[in-house]
Design a protein that fits this description.
It comes from Lachnellula hyalina. It is found in: Nucleus, Nucleolus. The protein is built from 42 helices and no strands. Among the domains are: 175 residues, no CATH class; 126 residues; 44 residues, no CATH class. It starts with 10 loop residues before the first helix and ends with a helix. The N terminus and C terminus are likely disordered. By secondary structure, it is an all-alpha fold. α16 runs parallel beside α19, α19 runs parallel beside α22 and α29 runs parallel beside α32.
Length: 701
């Protein structure tokens, strides 16, 4: 097993001395940082990287101080790139040609400084935004600029994020090139040569080969390694289960204004990848396992940094149909080396040891989900069958039980329900409703109707099934006063927030209900000053980790229905009045980005189009236009006339396809401008009265 990297003694004093020399101009910033006993390097030697192709053998010979130093940007360069980053974040270019010209100019200024920018705290986000907007040829050129330095960049605090962005944004290019007749050429080079994105990924893997074991537990490189494994395996990049593996919840997403970041089909579904990628995955797993002994693999199972990567490697190993069984050392054989059904065996001891561990239990979830059927049955009968009720009560092992329940046969499921049913009251009292939900879903899926009836009776008894209080109790609310408090002031409890989000779905309720519900959530401000100051519920929702999800649901709910779109504008306008508070809050910044409020402030009409498109995407595929919306608008195939006795005739082209509120806005605009039809058209075209782009106060709604 490779030894852990350790810092040499006296390194802190050495760093202080080097900092003093650098501040006094005595040290050249272009020199590589040296270990304490190394000979001075000549000044004319330029260090661009280190050769780490061989596995680390001695921690004393290869220390953290030997990482290359790429230099620092000059003050003028930092100012230029900072300004370029601001312009790219806004992305407010008049045309695509001007945007392409600006990107080309930035790349020209960054030539030869790519490594410095990627490692810079202030400019690394510029590199991420450049990658977001880059063409495939520009991405390939960045691969070349980073070449021979990936093993160091992936371990860097800031450069590792640039590598992740480059890998993720380049993954769809690999799939696209599989169906293309020829590969695009690298641009802006003295010699143009045909190079594929597949070969660039494989070259990157060659650089990392030999360091995989160390990268598993590196704070920053482990994330990048998981990104590479997901890309090589062709797994979806944007699904929730994948995103939780690739990044932490605290990571702030780098965005570009006016850029459609809606997940594409390639990122939401499993991608086609070359056969070389599958071979690369198998080689990474086999080489990594070969360099680790059993004790080190088991340490990784409870290691906070190594565990997520080990989960992914184990999942890829167990789901690979071409992997060789029984002939090679594998991760699952290292974790469970002997018969788990034998009491006191190494496998049984390890399994029971991680069952209650907050980190190790996640690896056990992966084993229970993807283990072959024969192995899963052995695990269930030896570990879970006789004590599944007690494991279901525990706040850690209950998540493993959920994975086990999802794979049980009908007979085993009925036995499990019989054991867990007496514990339903305790699960309800502890708010362990996820496992109850899983039991109901699995009984329905397996057709265990008798068990489902017994389970329903146990749940009813646990909630004291009184129709007047059942919903409140299931929402963890004791009384109506508490409900009013939650709906008017917030922040709410997570169960209440989930119920509200479900109620706001366009397919779950009609427009009238949603309008009344939104008026209850956001009552009009007090008209008199005697009532005292009141907290804006919209502001409170935006700053709440739980309530911010409700705001996102409100956006999709109101944007999908024209009669409710004025509510979207009203909430967006209220959010902009709290811009300072939102930008200082982590959840506030997420709400600001999801509601596209920068675009709302600059280009209202474009914001309207994007928000309405977002609302249409949230509708069920089988019903592009909800029935309640058609009824509210007074349209439909069977009725050619509008409301109130067919005031809008069927043949009137100006009124076809317009909602009642749109027509009311046009009428208001026409009245405001003197009643002329030309004035109404001008108002609807120039000020957005026909599109809903105006503020609520201007239309008197």
């Amino acid at each position: 097993m490779p030894k852990e990297n350790k810092h040499s003694r006296g390194r802190r004093d050495e760093k202080k001395e080097k900092k003093r020399k650098r501040d006094n101009g005595e040290d050249e910033p272009s020199k590589r940082r040296k270990s304490q006993d190394a000979d001075p390097a000549p000044e004319d030697v330029e260090f661009t990287g280190l050769d780490n192709s061989e596995p680390i053998q001695n921690a004393e010979e290869t220390t953290a101080t030997e990482r290359p130093f790429y230099g620092m940007l000059e003050d003028e360069e930092q100012e230029y790139f900072r300004r370029a980053d601001e312009l790219l974040e806004l992305n407010d270019f008049p045309s695509e040609e001007e945007q392409s010209m600006f990107l080309a100019n930035v790349y020209r200024e960054a030539e030869g400084k790519e490594l410095k920018i990627a490692c810079s705290q202030s400019c690394s986000r510029l590199m991420e935004r450049l990658i977001l907007l880059s063409s495939p040829a520009q991405k390939k050129k960045l691969f070349g600029n980073f070449a021979d330095n990936f093993s160091h960049l992936v371990q860097h605090r800031f450069a590792s994020h640039c590598c992740e962005m480059l890998f993720i944004q380049s993954a769809p290019v690999v799939t696209q090139e599989l169906t293309a007749d020829s590969h695009p050429e690298v641009e802006d080079g003295d010699e143009k040569k045909d190079v594929s994105m597949e070969s660039l990924f494989l070259q990157t893997l060659d650089e990392l080969e030999g360091n995989m074991t160390f990268l598993l537990t590196d704070r920053f490189a482990s994330h990048t390694l998981r990104v590479l494994m997901v890309i090589l395996s062709g797994r979806p990049l944007e699904k929730e289960s994948t995103r939780s593996l690739l990044q932490s919840k605290r990571k702030e997403k780098t965005s570009v204004g006016n850029m459609d970041l809606t997940p594409t089909e390639l990122s939401l579904n499993k991608r086609s990848v070359p056969e070389s990628f599958q071979f690369a995955v198998e080689k990474i797993i086999s080489d990594t396992v070969a360099t680790m002994d059993t004790s080190f693999i088991r340490i990784l199972a409870t290691h906070p940094t190594g565990n997520p990567t080990l989960q992914l490697l184990l999942e890829l190993e167990l789901t690979n149909p071409t992997s060789k069984k029984g002939t090679e050392k594998t991760i699952i054989s290292a974790l469970l080396p002997d018969d788990i059904t034998t009491e006191g065996s190494d496998s049984s001891v390890f399994m029971n040891g991680i069952l209650y561990d907050p980190i190790g239990s996640r690896l056990l979830e992966t084993i229970c989900t993807y283990a072959p059927g024969k192995l899963f049955k052995q695990i269930y009968r030896s570990t879970f069958k006789d004590r599944i009720a007690g494991l279901a009560r525990n706040e850690i092992s209950s998540y493993v039980v959920i994975r086990v329940l999802q794979r049980l046969s009908k007979e085993d499921l009925e036995e499990a329900v019989a054991q867990i049913s007496p514990q339903i009251l305790g699960l309800v009292q502890r708010s362990r409703t996820v496992i109850i939900k899983t039991l109901i879903e699995r009984c329905h899926a397996r057709g265990a109707m008798k068990s489902l009836e017994a389970l329903t009776e146990a749940i009813s008894a646990a909630y004291d099934c009184d129709p007047a209080t059942l919903v409140l109790k299931m929402a963890c609310i004791d009384d109506v006063e508490a409900l009013i408090k939650f709906t008017t002031h917030y922040p709410s409890t997570p169960p209440t927030s989930h119920i509200i989000q479900s109620a706001l779905l366009p397919s779950a309720a009609n427009v009238t209900f949603r309008r009344k519900f939104l008026n209850l959530l956001f009552p009009p401000p007090p008209e008199t000053q005697d009532q005292g100051p009141s907290t804006d519920p919209i502001q409170t929702l935006a700053l709440s980790p739980t309530g911010s999800h409700t705001l996102d649901s409100i956006l999709k709910s109101t944007a999908s229905s024209n009669p409710l779109f004025n509510q979207t504008e009203r909430i967006a306008l209220a959010l902009t009045t709290h811009e300072h508070l939102l930008r200082e809050s982590w959840t506030g910044r997420i709400v600001w980005r999801n509601w596209m409020l920068d675009l709302f402030k600059r280009k209202r009409g474009e914001w309207v189009n994007k928000v309405k498109a977002l609302g249409l995407e949230s509708l069920p595929k089988e019903s592009p236009v909800p029935q309640e919306q058609a009824e509210e608008e007074g349209g439909g195939k069977q009725r050619g006339k509008g409301k109130k006795g067919g005031r809008f005739s069927k043949g009137d082209e100006k009124t076809q396809g317009k909602s009642a509120i749109q027509l009311a806005r046009e009428k208001f605009a026409a009245t405001k401008l003197g009643g002329s039809s030309a004035g109404a058209a001008k108002a609807g075209k120039g000020k957005g009265y026909g599109t809903g782009a105006n503020q609520v106060e201007k239309i008197g709604a």
